[in-house]
Amino acid sequence: MADIISLLLPFFGLILIGYAAAKATKQPAEALGWLNTFIIYAALPALFFKLVSRTPIEELTRVDFIINDIAATYAVFILLFAIGRFVRGNPLDECTIQSFAGAYGNIGYMGPGLALLALGEAAAVPVALIVCFENALHFIVAPALMAAAGDDKRSAGRLACDIARKVALHPFILSTAAGFAVAALHLDQPAAFQRLVDYLAQAAAPCALFAMGVTLALRPLKRIPAEISYIVPAKLILHPIAVFLALTVIGGFEPVWIQAAVLLASLPTATNVFVIGQQYGVWQERASATILITTVLSVASVSLWLIAIRSGLLPLQLFL
After folding, report:
1. DSSP 3-state percent helix, strand, coil across the chain (nearest 5)
2. What's the CA gap between 182 and 179, in Å, rounded?
3. What is the mean pLDDT of residues 292-300?
4. Which family is this protein grouped under (predicted)?
5. Directed axis angle between helix 63-82 and helix 92-103, to 10°?
6. 3-class state of residue 271 by DSSP
């Protein structure tokens, strides 16, 4: 238990510090803009490039791992979509945001820092692959479903081009692709360049978690959705269980890869879900409430998942 506390205290402590700083200084939300720019365009891309470029290329081509992880994530997405659409009778656009709220975890901001801290450098590759490929698919699915709902007025050709451009030019995707190229070609990186990448990578987790705390403080809890009763357990409990089963039933993966995937799946709802809702004017306040509630509750749920992982309670050899 002491090991778990030592892992989580600095991690969630940074979120708490950001939250307290925002409440104390009462800075406007716009003041966070440049820090978010640094995180998204410099620090996190540097971290993903570092993780991927210094990994043997054969470890980066585990297509089976990516397929099973994404299948589990979208099984949860489809389940929530079906509940929203056919049980509650919600519109297509609202069902889309609700489903992302239960299947799109905060893997970019929270994932790398926590996984590397808890599992070590061996978790670097699965973390980078999950962040890259899951985000890419989310960037495709969200506008496609919104277009089907009629909330996106772009033509099919324009929509396809915009989606392709967003995926291809996203800093996370570009940095991961560059890392793939360096690993595949066995390119030597100059020492000065490596130091720059290391400096930026080291800043990624602290800055991202601090910014997340600030964001939570500036996003008051106004409207709690009725759907929270099943979205929260789906995100914090069902999603990691689905990923665990998908990877262990198939087998053939290193335990640390399964552990990393389960840990990332256990993370709370991504702030990008609010961004998507805001972009289309759908389910905005309720998405904000879901992010806040899942983040607060994740202090306990992520702790329990870490205890299961670190103590061996997660039976990673059951199906191997």
Report:
1. 80, 0, 20
2. 5
3. 94
4. Belongs to the auxin efflux carrier (TC 2.A.69) family.
5. 130
6. coil
How is residue 222 written in tokens? 């106004």
Exposed/middle/buried for 317, CB within 10 Å: 0-12, 13-18, 19+? exposed
pTM for this predicted structure: 0.92
Q: What is the pLDDT of residue 25?
A: 94
Spatial CA neighbour of 74 closest among 238, 222, 213: 238
Section 88-115 average pLDDT: 95
Whole-number Cα distances in Å, 249 to 71, 241, 253, 313, 314: 13, 12, 10, 17, 14
Q: List, for residues 194-242, the tens digit of each pLDDT value.
A: 999 999 999 999 999 999 999 889 887 777 888 999 999 999 999 999 9
> How many alpha carbons fall within 13 Å on the CB side of residue 234?
26
DSSP codes of every residue in the chain: -HHHHHHHHHHHHHHHHHHHHHHHH---GGGGHHHHHHIIIIIHHHHHHHHHHTS-GGGGG-HHHHHHHHHHHHHHHHHHHHIIIIIS---HHHHHHHHHHHH-B-TTTTHHHHHHHHH-GGGHHHHHHHHHHHHHHHHHHHHHHHHHHT---S-HHHHHHHHHHHHHH-HHHHHHHHHHHHHHHTPPPPHHHHHHHHHHHHHHHHHHHHHHHHHHHTS------TTHHHHHHIIIIIHHHHHHHHHHHH--S-HHHHHHHHHHHTS-B-THHHHHHHHHTSSHHHHHHHHHHHHHHHHHHHHHHHHHHHHT-S-TTTT-
- Structure tokens, 270: 């991504």
Q: CA 71 to CA 84: how far, in whole Å?
A: 20
Structural tokens at position 304? 């329990």
